[in-house]
Amino acid sequence: MKIAVLGGGHGCYAAAADLAERGHEVWLWRRDGAALAPLIADPTITLIDAAGRRTVRIAGATGDIGQAVRGAALLFIPGPAFAQCDIARAAGPWLHDGQVAFLAPGTLGSIAMTRTLRSMGVSARIAFAETGTLPWLCRKHGPTEVAITMRATRLPTGVFPARDGTAAFAVLREAFDSIEPIEDALSGALMNAGPIIHPPLILMNAGPLEHNERYDIHNEGTQPAVRRVTDALDAERISIRKAFGYGPEHFPLRDHYENDRWMYGDSHQRLVESGDWREHIDLLSHRYMREDVEYGLALLASLARYTGTTAPLAHGLLALGGAICGADFARTSPRTMANLGLDTLSTTALSDLLQEGLTG
Fold first, then answer.
1. Distance between CA atoms of residues 289 and 202, nearest Å
2. Is 194-248+281-356 assigned to CATH 1.20.1420.30?
3. Residue 265 in this model has a pLDDT that exceeds 80
4. Is the sign of the CA dihedral 212, 134, 340, 199 positive or negative?
C-alpha cells in the first residue's frame, strides 16, 4: 500500500521507517527542504528499537507534496494540530476520493481540515481518522535516525464522517493492527492523551523548566502532586465523554503509569529509562504548550462548557498556560467549539454532522 507521511517531526520519521519495514511503499514529505536533503539523497532511515539498530529504505523523500499524496491510500499526519490546516491546503489539489487521512492525534483536526479543503473547492471524499496518541514513543537522534522506545498496542480511533468508517478502518488496519474502532471523530479527539498528560507536567514544572537547560518532565517532573492533578484532569475528560454518551473503554491515563492496559502497554518506566525526553522545553513555543494547551486543552474546556460539565482544572490550567504566553487561549484558540463553528449546534445536529460529514 502506498502511504504518504506528511511532516518532519519525530513521529514522521518513525512512521516512515516502521511502515516501510512492514513492506509498504512509503513517501515522506516535509516543507523544510534543507532538513530533508540527506533523506532525498539517500532514502534510508536508521531505526533503533528493542530489536537493535538497522537501516530501512523507504520509497522516497520529497519536497513535492503531490508526489507523496498522488495514489496514496493512506495519508499519515502526526504533525501538531496547528499545522493540520496548512497541510490540508498544501495537499488539497492532489487528493482524490477514497483516501484516508490519519491524524495521530487529531484534536478535531478532521473537521478543521475538511472545512479548509471545502473552502478551497476540493470535493474529494476523504475519510479522516483521529486517535488518542502517536503510534510510537519515539525521538529522532539525527537527520536520518530515529529511536522507537515503544509501539502502541491499542489505538482507539474514530472516523469523520462516521458513515465512512468501514472503508476507512479497512485501510487503517493494513498499516496498524492495533486500531480499535470507536464511535466517531469527537470520541477519538476525547481520547487524546496530550492535553491531559502534558499541561500539568509543563505548568507545574514551569520553574525548573525555565531554570534548567534540559529537564525530563517524565522523570523528576512526575511527582505525586503532579500525578494527582493529572488524574483529576483526566476524570474531567472522562466526564465529558460520558456527557456526550460515549461508552467505555475511556482509556484512563492512570493506566499509562500503573499497568499495561493503556495505549502503549507498560510504558512509563521505559520512557524514563530511554533518556530521550530529557530536553529543552521553551514554555512559549514548545508543542506541549502550543498544541496540548492552546489547542487541546482549549477544546476540552470548550466541550465542558458545551455539555455543562464541571471542569475546573481544564479551565484553570488553560488560563494559567495563557497567562504564561500572554494570551487568552479560551477565546483565541482555533479549536474551541465556538471557533470551529460548532457551539450553536444542538447535540442532535452535532451528532448528525459527525455521522454524515459537512454538507454544502
1. 8
2. no
3. no
4. negative
The CATH class of 2-189 is alpha beta
What mean pLDDT comes out for the span 254-283? 86
Q: What's the pLDDT score for residue 360?
A: 59
The CA distance from 251 to 353, in Å, is 25
**Parallel/antiparallel/unpaired status of strands 74-77 and 136-142:** unpaired
Choose the weakest-confidence range: 10-14, 129-133, 271-275. Answer: 271-275
Q: Buried b vs exposed e over 224-236: b needs ≥16 C-beta within 10 Å? A: eebbebbeebbbb
Could you tell me the CA-to-CA distances from 293 to 203, 257, 317, 318 in Å, in that order? Answer: 10, 21, 8, 6
Rounded to whole angstroms, the Cα distance separating 30 from 326 reads: 30
In terms of phi and psi (left: phi > 0; alpha: psi -120 to 50; beta: otherwise), the region of 52 is left
The 10 Å Cβ neighbour count of residue 253 is 22
Every domain of the chain and the residues it spans = 2-189, 194-248+281-356
Lookup result for grid cell 455521522: 355
